[in-house]
Amino acid sequence: MKQLTFFTLLVMIIRLTANAQEFVSPSLPVATGKSPGVKVKLLDSAGQTKTYVLVFSPGDEVRSGLTEFAQKYDVKSAHYTAIGDVFSAKVGFFDYERKMFKVIPIDTSEVTSFIGNIAIFNGKPVAHTHVSLAVKDGSVKGGHLLELFVGPTLEVFVTVEPTTLYKKLDTRYDAGVIDPYLEK
Fold first, then answer.
1. DSSP letters spanning 5-45
2. DSSP letter string over 73-101?
3. pLDDT for 120-136, tens place per residue?
4. All domains of the chain in start order, with CATH
5. Is residue 160 within 8 Å of residue 96, measured between CB atoms?
6. Distances in whole angstroms, Cα of residue 111 to Cα of each of 82, 87, 114, 169
7. pLDDT by residue (tens digit) across 27-60?
8. CA 161-131-80 angle, 5° bins
9. C-alpha span between 68 and 32 (Å, rounded)
């Protein structure tokens, strides 16, 4: 009897663990230092607007690299797009009740859409990216980018604007959102 109870309990724990879903905060800070292979080149400097290309190497983590780029180049407002290949990624779908992102893991895939912006939140530049990724059967998954490790390459084209944009905390969602009228 004890063995049957133990076995039943073990099966229940395994099922609960397998069905457990990971959630993360929308304002979780990004760790830097995970993109040692990224290369940056200034493509154009027309007036106060600048355009850069960031070419990520295999194994680089993109959110980390975008954050480091923004810090190093003093980016206070920008937008970007990218194309490339992904070794692994995690995207999030916002759960309004929990005020958190439901984590969706994605294996090897192709970037079909990658768009985002950089603004200042709590005194630091924050990259906010949405991505769509095509997996091997051609279906597409996507959402808010939480983590992306590059396959062969990811090429990001960044346009840096001269006017600083600031984010403020929207307490309804516990998330930072751009307020175009906010000054520091």
1. HHHHHHHHHHHHHHH---EE-TTPPPPPS--TT-EEEEEEE
2. TT-SEEEEEEEEEEEEEEEEEEETTTTEE
3. 999 999 999 999 999 99
4. 22-179 (3.30.1330.80)
5. no
6. 8, 11, 7, 30
7. 888 999 999 999 999 999 989 999 999 999 999 9
8. 15
9. 6
Using CA atoms, how far residue 9 sits from 1, 4, 13, 19, in Å, is 12, 8, 6, 15
Residue keyed to tokens 């397998």: 18
Q: What is the pLDDT of residue 13?
A: 47
Check: CB of residue 155 under 8 Å from CB of residue 65. no
- Annotate 78-108 with b (16+ C-beta within 10 A) or e (fewer): bbbebebbbeebbbbeeeeeebbbbbbebee
- Chain-centroid distance of CA 120 in Å reads 16
Helix, coil or strand: residue 53:
strand
Chain mean position to CA 90: 8
Which pLDDT score is estimated for 18?
42
Measure CA of the first residue to CA of the last residue in the chain; give whole Å: 66
